[in-house]
Amino acid sequence: MKYSLLKIKNLKPVLPIIQGGMAVRVSTGKLAGTVAKYGGIGTIGASGMSQEEIKEEIFIAKKIAEGNGLVAVNMMVAAAEFTEMIHAIIEAKPDLIVCGAGFSKDVFHMAKAADIAFAPVVSSAKAAALGVKLGADMIIVEGKEAGGHLGTDRPMKEILKEVLDIVGGKIPVIGAGGVLHGSDICEVLKMGASGVQMATRFVMSEESNVHDNFKNYYLNHTAKDMAIFLSPVGYPGRAIMTKLLDSVESGKAGKFPCKYQCLKSCNHRFCIIEALQNAQKGNVDDGIVFTGERFPEIKSVLPVKTIIETLVKEMDAC
Ligand SMILES: Cc1cc2nc3c(=O)[nH]c(=O)nc-3n(C[C@H](O)[C@H](O)[C@H](O)COP(=O)(O)O)c2cc1C
Predict the structure, then answer these.
(1) Whose CA is nearest to atom 17 of ligand 1?
(2) 96-100 and 70-76 beta bridge pairing
(3) Helix crossing, 82-91 with 51-65: angle to 10°?
(4) What span, in angstroms and rounded, lies between the C-alpha atoms of 156 and 179?
(5) What superfamily in CATH does domain 17-209+298-317 come from?
(6) Site to substitute for ligand 1 among 240, 290, 293, most atoms within 8 A of C-beta
(7) Are 108 and 134 in contact (CB under 8 A)?
């Protein structure tokens, strides 16, 4: 079966599957490029990278994609160097820019001026309507099932229905959060969405850029180990409990020296960039292990090729 439902401006990926951007350095050029190579849209998580690094990662992703697939970049609006990073991203010309964790009107104009497709990540119909008004090329609706920072406690499908009504088919709408199998994708498409965004399944790919300790942390924990905590960014975040998170939540963690000034506004509960870097490098005890709600259902680390082939087979079956 051919899956060409998704059309973003003049871009037509083979599959209606976006691998969601994941910071810090969880989804780099290797993962995004491989997803693109096999027909999806691969997204690099740019938050926490330098301007030179993100340009290099876009170059790597495009090379792996072999000119076939689409390469996107995700950047968090709450980052201190947001505007400078968007300029650097535009210079390296990805196919699509995605922004979450906040709302910036400027980025709509910057992407449009550079003729690069732009999609905000939203968690309400109100934000989706604003996105359409500002000229978004696509809307990504993220529900409470997602990993990373959360903008809502409502299920994705509930919000998706409202967003689809408001957007009225003007631009593609994507469902993100809790999509794991081809049957989930079919359900979201049947609702009227043009595609899905998936991240947790791709953390557990051979190509994701996290240490084996991070992947084993997913395999060795269950739903009861999951926590929603208030991130220094100011949003709730979904993660698996770690020693660091336990000490922060129980009020035992002391003050930390702010070395990075990485956020426009930080509540200083702990250093988010250091915690994400620690986990990515394998020091999970002192880290934050972001995850989506359905991580306990993933039982193995697989190559991206196998993950995508399995999703397509499952979609064919429904
Ligand atoms: C480890 C991890 C890191 C993430 N980092 C980001 C990020 O930097 N920016 C962002 O907009 N979303 C981020 N997300 C959210 C994903 O891009 C995606 O929308 C969401 O996780 C989809 O739900 P799923 O994980 O259930 O598939 C992250 C998710 C995970 C699991």
Answers:
(1) 20
(2) parallel
(3) 40
(4) 10
(5) Aldolase class I (3.20.20.70)
(6) 290
(7) yes
Ligand 1 centroid to residue 57 C-alpha, Å: 18
Radius of gyration of the chain (CA): 18
How many angstroms does the Cα of residue 19 sit away from the middle of ligand 1? Answer: 9
> What is the per-residue pLDDT across 64-79, written as a single tens digit (0 to 9) for each?
998 888 999 999 999 9
Q: Which of 92, 183, 98 is nearest to 137 (CA)?
A: 98
146 Cβ below 6 A of ligand 1: yes
- pTM value is 0.97
Q: What is the pLDDT at residue 66?
A: 86
Best of 41, 173, 200, 307 for a ligand 1 pocket test (most atoms within 8 Å of beta carbon): 200
Using omega within 30 degrees of 0 as the cis cutoff, is the peptide bond preceding 203 cis? no
pLDDT digits over 225-282, tens only?
999 999 999 999 999 999 999 999 998 887 788 889 999 999 999 999 999 999 999 9
Domain spans of the chain? 17-209+298-317, 212-296
